[in-house]
Amino acid sequence: MVENLTIFVEGDPRLREGFNHLFSAHLKGRKVFNLSKGKSDALKKYNLDKKSTVKSVLVDLDRHEKDKEVELKETGLTGKPHVYYMVQEMEAWFLSQPEVLDGYFNLKLSEALKAKYGEKHATEIPNPKSKLKGFVKEKYQKREVIDGTVKPKTNYDEVDDAIVLLKKLNLSKLSKEFNDVENLIKLLN
User: What contacts 99, CB < 8 A, 6 or more positions away?
Assistant: First the structure.
């Protein structure tokens, strides 16, 4: 287990709570997540860090997984160790577990996802953040709720809702769906 590890993450610093919870079984009390407002800031911190024994970066790929090598080259990360991507965005993680979305939003989002994308892998859904926002808005407007006694969420907030959704994800399932999640877990262990 690496003691002096820092993982520079793209995202609002409040998301640290969600990442800590999601990866808690592998953190062993360590505080490793350093969040930055944007991708460029996270990459800058990763490149400039001299204090960590081991450093890593976790950012949105913002493009299809097949274009990962292009992204590595454009960001100057080719050949650098411990570079991990949320493909295409963190919201793809949420779309990969639609049952979590159904329960949290109290809306029939898994039905909408299946109708629109069939059995496509979450990494194949372009612009996952905007798609998630659109599905929530559409299902809320149509009042397609799961439990009529519970008020559904009306929209997706990319910080407040993401914190809760990160806590609700099944990390084992996530690591089977996304290679970089599995590789990040290996680094944490």
Answer: 110
pLDDT tens, 105-127? Answer: 999 999 989 999 998 999 999 99
What six digits make up the tokens of 152? Answer: 């559904």
How far are the Cα atoms of 48, 107, 186 from residue 93, in angstroms, in the given order?
A: 28, 18, 18
Please name the residues in contact with 43: beta carbons below 8 A apart, sequence gap of 6 or more.
8, 57, 59, 75, 77
**85, 180 contact by CB (below 8 A):** yes
Residue 151 in this model has a pLDDT that exceeds 90: no
Residue 1 identity: M
Whole-angstrom distance, CA of residue 130 vs CA of residue 89: 10
Model pTM score: 0.93
